[in-house]
Amino acid sequence: MRKVLSTALSAALLSVLSAVGSAYEVITVTNGGTVQGVVKLVGQAPTVPPIKTTKNQDYCGNSIDNPLYVVGKDGGLKNVEVFLKGIEKGKANPTATITLLNTHCMFDPRVQGSSTGQQIKIASDDPILHNTHPQNNDTNATIYNIALPFKGFSVTKPLPATPELIRVKCDAHEWMRAWIWEFDHPYYATTDADGHFEIKDVPPGTYTVVAWHEVMGQKDASATVAAGKPVTVDFSFTPKK
């Protein structure tokens, strides 16, 4: 039993030391390249029933369009988070405050990226009570729970100190969802209305590029970045049946 515990503790310690040793290093990037591309949906988007509201129908309405599959020009897929996996060094993280808005009984944006050290402004544009409840996606641990009692109310909070996928819900309106990918580096982008993304100032090298969608999961691809040049990495997702 002691041997098993010792082995488990050793493994845990090695894991911690490995994480500490692989901390992201900020360097000057003078001639970085760009990872760009398009994320597309293969075939037609599934027919997803609208969200049926269960509260505040006088303001929210009886139903809201379901944003699980938002497809634009030429099948481009919105709300996909694209990022470089395990990048060890590069430019500094952004310091600007990101925003999550409660607007017409939904969160906006649905999906966004962030970096450790950033803050988030949680605000409401609705004349009804909301609460914004971010949780660690893997453990369900509450990060904080912010009540937004009236239109124009806002609270600014620091994001967690360690990278994680954050799932956001509103306990007052159970259909409201958002996702925040938090990284220890700045090399990420959320696809626009036509599925395009662009990640700039990447140090030359070979990287794993990950595309993540809240329903269809994630896909990986390899990209070799040359100094001062763009490299195109496209992704295709097939809807789950």
Describe this structure in words.
The chain is mainly β and 241 residues long. The protein has one domain: Immunoglobulin-like. Helices cover 10% and strands 43% of the residues. It has helices spanning 2-21, 57-60; strands at 25-26, 33-41, 51-52, 63-64, 81-85, 89-90, 98-103, 106-108, 111-115, 119-124, 130-136, 146-148, 154-158, 164-169, 177-183, 188-190, 196-202, 205-213, 217-225, 230-232, 235-237. The strands form six sheets. Strands 9-15-14-11-12 form a five-stranded mixed sheet, with no helix packed on it. Strands 2, 17, 20 and 21 form a four-stranded mixed sheet that branches. It has a four-stranded antiparallel sheet with strand order 16-5-18-19, with no helix packed on it. It is globular, with a radius of gyration of 20 Å.
Quick overview of this protein structure:
By secondary structure, this protein is mainly β.
Domains, number: 1
Which structural class should the secondary elements be placed in? Answer: mainly beta
Major sheet strand order: 9-15-14-11-12
Regarding quaternary structure, what we see is single chain
